[in-house]
């Protein structure tokens, strides 16, 4: 099973993210753009894991949830820019998140829990973002997109499975813990 840890969003907020995905898609020649159902913010990609590892990862998920003021969660994330990760002659385009101390602590705590359980973790610097499209080839070398800062409330935290169903990438929660209202 291929899995990752993520923060999840409410459906109404996914619709708002879709507006930015469509803006990027309209400014591109081609690309694979994220389906609305798949919008999330990755905390850590784990890759292929065994069934017993999934059990351990779900325990870590519960520990993280409980560490967040007993599941209260945290203030909304503020989306304020569009960025990219270059990949050969194409890009991964994403919606960027303003600095958020509690999010940074959550991600560091996740890394600590994973290392304590002898899991491998990515070494690269964590850049919080919401992926809008992969393998994107833009019409212009650098199109500027304006993003008016806006808050995105967090629905919960999840261990997600990534799978291909009928040629379509689908993300489904293995376990999702919903935050209580602040």
Please explain how this structure is put together.
With 182 residues, the chain is α+β, with helices and mostly antiparallel strands. It is 27% helix and 41% strand. The chain has 3 helices and 9 strands; from the N terminus they run βαββαββαββββ. Strand 8 and strand 9 form a beta hairpin. Helix 2 packs antiparallel against helix 3. It is globular and about 45 Å long. It starts with a strand and ends with a strand.
The count of helical stretches stands at 3
Global geometry: globular
SSE succession: EHEEHEEHEEEE
Secondary structure category:
alpha+beta
Q: Spatial order of the strands in the main sheet? A: 2-6-5-4-7
Total beta strand runs: 9
Average residue-wise pLDDT: 91
Largest sheet: 5 strands, antiparallel
The termini sit apart by 34 Å
How is the secondary structure organized here?
Layout: E1 2-8, H1 11-26, E2 28-33, E3 41-48, H2 51-67, E4 77-87, E5 90-97, H3 101-116, E6 129-138, E7 150-152, E8 156-165, E9 168-178
Antiparallel strand pairs: 1-3, 1-8, 2-6, 4-5, 4-7, 5-6, 8-9
Helix pairs in contact: 2-3
Short description:
With 182 residues, the protein is α+β, with helices and mostly antiparallel strands. Helix content is 27%, strand content 41%.
Q: Keyphrases for this structure?
A:
single chain, 182 residues, alpha+beta, five-stranded antiparallel sheet, four-stranded antiparallel sheet, 9 strands, globular
């Amino acid at each position: 099973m291929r899995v990752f840890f993520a923060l999840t969003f409410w459906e109404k907020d996914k619709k708002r993210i879709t507006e930015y995905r469509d803006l990027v898609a309209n400014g591109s020649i081609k690309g694979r753009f994220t389906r609305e159902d798949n919008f999330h913010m990755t905390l850590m990609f784990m890759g292929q894991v065994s069934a017993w590892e999934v059990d351990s990862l779900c325990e870590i998920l519960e520990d993280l949830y409980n560490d967040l003021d007993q599941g209260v969660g945290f203030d909304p994330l503020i989306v304020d820019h569009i960025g990219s990760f270059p990949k050969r002659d194409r890009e991964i385009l994403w919606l960027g998140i303003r600095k958020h101390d509690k999010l940074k602590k959550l991600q560091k705590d996740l890394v600590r829990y994973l290392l304590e359980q002898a899991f491998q973790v990515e070494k690269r610097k964590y850049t919080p973002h919401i992926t809008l499209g992969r393998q994107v080839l833009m019409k212009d070398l650098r199109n500027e997109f304006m993003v008016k800062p806006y808050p995105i409330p967090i629905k919960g935290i999840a261990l997600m499975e990534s799978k291909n169903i009928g040629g379509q990438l689908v993300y489904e929660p293995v376990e999702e813990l919903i935050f209580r209202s602040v």
